[in-house]
Specification:
2 copies of one chain form a homodimer.
Chain A lengths: L9 H5 L9 H8 L5 E2 L11 H9 L13 H11 L6 E4 L2 H12 L5 E5 L4 H9 L3 E5 L8 H11 L3 E5 L11 H10 L5 E5 L21 E6 L12 E4 L2 H10 L7 H11 L2 H24 L3 E2 L6 E5 L3 H13 L2 E2 L11 E5 L3 H17 L1
Helix pairs in contact in A: 3-10, 4-10, 5-6, 7-8
Chain lengths: 367, 367
Amino acid sequence: MADQSLLFSRIVTDLPETVPFVPPEELERKTGVKIRLRLGANESSFGMSPLAREAMANSLGENHLYGDALSFDLKEELAARHGIGKEMITVAGGIDELLGWIARVFLNPGEPVTASLGSYPTFHYHVAGFGGRLHQVPYRKGKNDLDALADTARHTGSRIVYLANPDNPTGTWFTADELKEFRRQLPADCLLLLDEAYIEFAPEKAHFPVDPADPGVIRTRTFSKAHGMAGLRVGYAFAHREIITAFDKIRNHFGVSRIAQTGALAALKDEGFVRQVVREVAAGRREYEAVAKTLGFTAYPSATNFVAIDTGDANRAAAIREALWQRGVFIRIPGVAPLNRCLRVSVGTPAERQEFVRILREVVQEL
Amino acid sequence: MADQSLLFSRIVTDLPETVPFVPPEELERKTGVKIRLRLGANESSFGMSPLAREAMANSLGENHLYGDALSFDLKEELAARHGIGKEMITVAGGIDELLGWIARVFLNPGEPVTASLGSYPTFHYHVAGFGGRLHQVPYRKGKNDLDALADTARHTGSRIVYLANPDNPTGTWFTADELKEFRRQLPADCLLLLDEAYIEFAPEKAHFPVDPADPGVIRTRTFSKAHGMAGLRVGYAFAHREIITAFDKIRNHFGVSRIAQTGALAALKDEGFVRQVVREVAAGRREYEAVAKTLGFTAYPSATNFVAIDTGDANRAAAIREALWQRGVFIRIPGVAPLNRCLRVSVGTPAERQEFVRILREVVQEL
């Protein structure tokens, strides 16, 4: 390298120049398209609780103060709602940040990790970013293949197995009983990283119970989805207290913004708002499923705020996405086969859904 | 360890359970004291620009959307104002986050770093957090000892030398010419990490010029101080484009909140507000300096929004801090000798300064 100052660490030197997701704003800048329907990032078109908005508006005069590095009030409220101790909770700037902490805390360079092929790219990114080696297991019939994941975790000696429940990008889910059986199949030194970003949209039986005595499970959650606060950057994790202590040794202690703490605390208390969002999203999923059928596609059964519509063919999916994009509709297609036959579409408001369905029909007919 | 799941990475296992700063909220919870005057974290009592507040209030309906992972608009404005290319800028959730990226990008485990003894604890924390070895150089006559820092960087083979200009916790500063000479003394493979968190408060001649051709300097800046946005978590760095590219390989791409991007962009455009804050802070520093003198103490010459008042004795300083705390006044004392003789006090509003001075006089007389 030309200059000796530009000697980076071994891990960073070996990393590719890739990013987990190109943001929609950058896609707009690159293509000159202006987005009219933003349904590609599973943001909540229903916004956030009016109580959260009010609390944030009232706190605008406090932005000159650092937030509480311990997020004490927010953890206290989470602890009370989930019936667990505060010492089992950490708060971070979204699940993305948590995934980085987890890779950093658990992995030495070169150590193995298992996840589904096509699962959340940001997890894969952080595993690579800390020098981990990712083993990937194909989806099976549109779902994570739990047996194969456990097998791979075992024979590779994985330190972590990542599973999103409900899943992204398929939207599918497992019951707590299935997850408990999966947990039992994992080796004793393999952590189950259960990403529950979409758990609020899932039926009760998908809720894996919190066991404070089990050091082998971390669950990550967020205010980005059902609470409609993706832009605020606040998420949390439940884990054994020794894992929370390990996070405290490395985390950016003042990293969560004060206004996010304020908003999240107020949002937690507005259960009625979240229930209403969940109901509306369920109705929207049924609309998308019906439309998929009339177009000759199949929709994966979803317990999230999006639906993966299987067009049966990756080229067709790509063509549809491009035609949608040219009409200002932002959706995503998962990056790898066979999921790349699917259009992943967020459930928007009734008006957005109507507009999306109208344009989708138009596009499919034209192609 | 009892459970094999709790096997952490070698670096994390070796880390102590310490945090860079205990937040004032936690001090309140631990002691039962209620803070009346919060002058210990160098937050800006002058708040943020009304234009920033208005922009943020108007954007409250957008919090369900992720921010732009590239912070494009904010970088564009920063680039225009500083006359450099966008490719030399990165935006992060405050300087604290940037310091973590820098340690991660430049250090292999065991590699050496140089900083002043008593300089910013969060930098030390991140160096340790990525397995770096910190060499510390005592302050000399209340200032960073540039010659000794360069010597130590050289003989230890340091990859990074950290220098805050203006300095925290002393408030002192160097001219651009002194810094250029310092830069010349550093080995070719040693990065100068210039932390300019307080640069807006410093005289023009303290501004080290940006040289896009120099890959050996990173400058970190923030909206937390002069712009009064500590709670929002937004900072940025200027560096060689290859360093910015390295950050892009590891950073949390969606980590900066949308509302922080909005607020920071609006704040940048309100130069009059920052000028007014800087003038008011300068007046406040003179008040503190005068009071220090009447109490028989000396104030370090400061180009920041705080003043380090040297009481001449560490025990006296500790006693004063404790007495202030019992009266609800939050200030800090640097952690190591000889700086631990100093009270580090943020410059508050005129009313806060008056109240602080009244209580300080009372406390000093009583002790």
